[in-house]
Design brief:
The chain contains twelve helices and three strands; from the N terminus they run ααααβββαααααααα. By secondary structure, the chain is mainly alpha-helical. Its EC number is 3.4.19.12.
């Protein structure tokens, strides 16, 4: 629900700070009431008019079940400065639930969610749980960038110390090229990777810390083990391209489903029934 709440707050911010727009009686009264407030978020959520508008907007969202008369609000949990914080949109401010760290904060959050879910179930209130995570596409793209850089460094080392190594690996290289071109999903992943390239560091712009880890991992390898690592990296690159292609397929499916859910089929159904009536397929 975060995007809808931010949209509502963003629109209100524009309206309340633009003198060239006639914002009407209700917004003018709210503007005068909150003129000295440093933050209007809590006042917005306490205002009946805005709460109803927010609930109407949430009910209109196609992926959420509509509940007549319901008032929606979001509760967020974040780890910040060694504490688990609860951000409840209907409370005065954030509150600390527990002291924790990166390794155990999800356990504390899970316990809190279980407690909340039990309470809402007893009140017969619906609850939805969403996780905000990094895009899988960008995660795979970053890994791919690192693997491609590592592949290039190994090839440079082999070219320097064993110039004829490519002859013995020619068959593997041909199989790799064939795998890149024979799978539609892998080809799709390659295209997506090219589009994502500007979001991630290029191989020549990787952080120095990551470069040092790569140099350290390959510098002590013998030439035979370097070739084995080189072959393994080829397999990992193919898998990453395939995962990128799968993510792209998912996005396409989600977009199609979204269009289907939003499309108004009623005019077609009415015309179809009318045509059946006119052709005598229905009894009077």
């Amino acid at each position: 629900m975060y995007s809808e709440a931010y949209l509502l707050h963003g629109l209100l911010h524009i309206l309340l700070n633009c003198n060239q727009i006639d914002i009407g009686t209700d917004l003018n009264q709210f503007k005068q009431l909150t003129s000295n407030y440093t933050s209007k978020g809590h006042a917005i959520l306490k205002n009946r008019l805005f709460r109803e508008a927010y609930s109407d907007m949430i009910n209109a969202w196609p992926y959420r079940r509509k509940v007549d008369g319901a008032t929606y609000h979001s509760v967020s949990y974040v780890l910040r400065q060694g504490n688990l914080w609860e951000l409840d949109a209907l409370k005065d401010g954030p509150c600390i639930l527990a002291s924790c760290n990166e390794d155990n904060w999800l356990d504390f959050m899970q316990a809190e969610l279980v407690k909340k879910a039990k309470m809402y179930q007893e009140l017969d209130l619906p609850i939805s749980i969403w996780a905000v995570i990094e895009s899988r596409k960008l995660v795979y793209q970053k890994k791919l960038t690192s693997k491609l850089f590592m592949k290039q460094e190994i090839e440079n080392m082999l070219d320097k110390h064993q110039p004829d190594w490519r002859k013995s690996c020619q068959r593997w290289e041909e199989e790799y090229v064939h795998a890149l071109s024979s799978s539609e999903r892998i080809k799709r992943g390659q295209l997506l990777s090219n589009r994502l390239a500007h979001h991630c560091s290029r191989s020549d712009q990787l952080p120095n810390e990551e470069k040092q880890k790569i140099y350290s991992s390959i510098s002590h390898n013998k030439q035979g083990s370097l070739i084995d690592t080189w072959l393994q990296i080829h397999d990992e690159i193919l898998r990453l391209y395939e995962r990128l292609g799968l993510e792209d397929e998912k996005d396409e499916m989600y977009k199609k489903n979204y269009i289907r859910k939003r499309h108004n089929y009623i005019p077609f159904i009415q015309s179809f029934i009318q045509a059946l009536v006119e052709q005598g397929h229905f009894h009077p």
